[in-house]
Amino acid sequence: MSARLQEPRRKFLTHVLVVASYALLTAVMTWPLVLHFDSAVLGPPGDNLEYVWKMWWFKHALLERRVSPLYDPDIFYPFGYPLALSETTVVHTVMGAPLTALWGETVAYNAVVYLSFVVSGYGVYLLCRGLACSALASWIAGLAFAYCPYRLAHLGAGHLPLMGTGWMALFFLAAEGLIRAPSWRRGLAVGLFYALTALSSWYYALMLGLMGGLYLLLRARGWSRALWPRLALGGALAAVLIGPAALPMIRLYAEGQARYGFSLAYVDRWSASPLDFLYPNAMHPWWGEALTKAYYQNIHENLLYLGLPVIVLSAIGFWARRKERVTRAVIWLAVVAFVLALGTSLHVAGEPVYLRVPAQVEYQFSRAMYVLTGRLALNRVDYSPLRREGAIIIPLPTLLLYLFVPMMSAMRVWTRFGIFVMLGASVLAAWGIDTVLRRLTAPWRGLAAATLALLVLVDVAVVPYPYGYTEVRGQPVDHWLAEEPRPSPVAHFPLDKTWYGWMLYPQRVHRQPIAYGYGTFAPLAYREAAGVLGDWPSEEAHRLLREWGIQYVLVGARSYGDAWPTVQQRIASLDGIQPVGVFEDRPLHHSDRLLVHVRPSPDVPPTELVSGARVAYLHDEVHVYAIQ
After folding, report:
1. CB atoms within 10 A of CB 479
2. How confident is the model at residue 498 (pLDDT cuts 50, 70, 90)?
3. What is the pTM of this model?
4. Cβ pair 501, 494 in contact under 8 A
5. What is the pLDDT of residue 3?
6. Three-state SS string across 508-543, please?
7. For a Cys staple, 481 with which of 53, 189, 336, 510, CB 3.0–4.6 Å?
8. Does position 1 have pLDDT exceeding 70, yes or no?
9. Which residues pair with 348 in a beta bridge?
10. Which residues neighbour 79 within 8 Å (Cβ) at sequence distance 6 or greater?
11. In this structure, what DSSP letter does residue 71 have?
């Protein structure tokens, strides 16, 4: 075979080996996922089961009921649930629909999660290759990005939308190619990969819009007649692809059904500390427990460690290629993302930093902040919750974006900009690896590459997965409800127990309408009724349930704690209600080794469920009452 024919075959085999290696390593780095691929999901019960339910619902709606999957009449009954209120992660759920039809929703969820590691690693590999890195350096950079703590932490939280990071890398690959050699094909590729990112996560739609635009401005030289028309074509393609998912959300917002703005006090809580990028991997099997106990981090949002090997290699890569325009663009991208991830004010260990100042200084500073946030801002908010007598916060540039840029007030968790810091660090590390390998002779080059790959993997290792896994199955009460005639609408109390994402999955088991849903995104009519409903078993709340046609009320006895005897007496005093059964929940969550050491926090619901005051929510005694 001629050399000309062998070269394409060699390149193809290289790509196959790269993809296969990421697929194999994902099995190791997410262990024991492969052992429970069809029966469980990683992490404690939370948003993971919400997205498992969405996998089933999208398949059920599209392939069986032949209706739009963006509305379910049986959630938040009797109002129904417009799924556009929440994160639908269309790319993942549509991709998972055929898998759900063939092997079930648990396999579908795990498959798209698993694939996200492969796409993220391979996407960075291709990006680095496009930036003139060697195959070995690009492969190691892909390892650093695919298995970074940011991704592995969000995996345990069940944040399926945030796993779509591979499309980001491919977006920058397409953007760099478009800048270097403008073509209509590359313009369309930019639009396609932006759309795939946006349809994975609306957070990423805003974030990549900002960071991608910054990168293009830094890299492009003026308003090139060849570049910008092709980029505009890509933008048009992105709009066509995103539109069908975005328009229902926009319509709900226009109708007042959706609320996409967050208070300054709430947003400020989700700010990263500079130390979060340097604090070692707190999920590690060797030192994770000690680190988790020593320093408070939001275990899903603030585990932003870049990795010691990556930091060192990034510094080498930057110095070696510091004079190149593309290097400056990558650095600026990472620096801006780092600053934005720090949020609206400076934080350390999850708490805002306050500077002690004279009373007059604090008064003048607070007065200026009231004017800025309450009068001048496009998104007007209340500064009062952040004010402290005799001390001032240290505001950061993110605050200006939050206050003055449209849609940025919908950004609740600014720490998520940390993924762009990791992406920039991975590219710089690839350049650093190449710099190191070029200084070695052939016999030592392979050994050095293997050593660097091992150091990267050991540094970010989480094996076995530190937050355990959750069985995907119904509880005994769910199987009992499945035997009842349909529809038999169901309510569940205490009401705040129903606000967790994991409470949606039982509806897939029993198929009955439920008068609740994921509490973060509820229809307006339900939110208006929640004040009365939450007071059940009051007479007014009971009348409301009867008006809605609720037939069964599930009550978690242990969830009420010491108040349960009183609640039970109040239930008995209600008219037209009778007990029909008592069911014991069976444990779903297994093999946790770190959550029990995390300080319980309402900002991190799984910690409340596993080791906090609400642990009874997972191991409840459910009393069933029938409403006559």
Report:
1. 14
2. very high
3. 0.96
4. no
5. 59
6. HHHCCCECCCCCCCCCHHHHHHHHHHCCCCCHHHHH
7. 510
8. no
9. 351
10. 523, 525, 526
11. E
> How far is Cα 459 from Cα 304, in angstroms, rounded to an integer?
13
d(CA 508, CA 492): 15
Residue 472: CB atoms within 10 A of its CB come to: 26
Task: Give the 3-state secondary structure of 578-622.
Answer: EEEEEEECCCCEEEECCHHHCCCECCEHHHHHHHCCCHHHCCCEE
Is residue 173 within 8 A of residue 329, CB to CB? The reply is no
383-404 burial, b if ≥16 CB within 10 A, otherwise e? beebbeeeebbebbebbebbbe
What residue type is assigned to position 320 of the chain? A
- Biggest alpha carbon distance in the chain? 89
605 pLDDT band, cuts 50/70/90, is confident
What are 273-298's pLDDT values in tens digits? 999 999 999 999 999 999 999 999 99
For 486-489, the CB contacts below 8 A with 24+ separation are 486/511, 486/512, 487/74, 487/512, 487/513, 488/512, 488/513, 488/551, 488/552, 489/77, 489/78, 489/513, 489/514, 489/515, 489/548, 489/549, 489/550, 489/551, 489/552
Helix (H), strand (E) at residue 432: helix 418-438
Of 487, 494, 538, 536, nearest to 510 by C-alpha is 487
Structure tokens at 435: 């710099």
Measured at the alpha carbon of residue 365, what is the angle toward residues 360 and 366, in degrees to the nearest 5? 100
Residue 78, preceding peptide bond in cis (omega within 30° of 0)? yes
The answer to whether 584 touches 476, Cβ cutoff 8 Å, is yes
Q: Write out the two tokens for 241.
A: 């692809």
CA of residue 19 relative to chain centroid, distance: 24
- Cα gap 588→600, rounded to integer Å: 19
pLDDT at 5 exceeding the cut of 60: no
Angle, to 10 degrees, between the axis of helix 166-180 and the axis of helix 184-198?
160
Separation between Cα atoms, residue 31 and residue 457, nearest integer Å: 14
Closest CA to 160 of 258, 241, 54, 76: 54
| Spatial separation of the C-alpha atoms in residues 403 and 411, rounded to whole Å | 11
Q: Return d(Cα 48, Cα 54) in angstroms, integer.
A: 10
Please report where in the chains the tokens 């003139």 appear, as a residue: 132
Instruction: Name the residue with tokens 């035997």.
Output: 483
The position carrying tokens 């590729």 is 189
What is the average pLDDT score of the chain? 94
Beta bridge partners of residue 578, listed in sequence order: 626
C-alpha distance from residue 512 to each of 47, 73, 479, 551, 552 (Å): 21, 11, 11, 10, 10
The pLDDT value recorded for residue 4 is 61
Radius of gyration of the chain (CA): 26
Assigned token pair, 412: 């609740």
Structural contact between residues 179 and 172, judged by C-beta atoms closer than 8 angstroms: no
Structure confidence at residue 10 (pLDDT) = 87
Whether the per-residue pLDDT at 259 is higher than 90: the answer is: no
Report the DSSP beta bridge partners of residue 82.
71
Structure token digits, residue 596: 């029990």
Token pair, residue 223, equals 């308003």
Task: Name 474's Cβ contacts closer than 8 Å, sequence gap at least 6.
Answer: 482, 505, 506, 509, 510
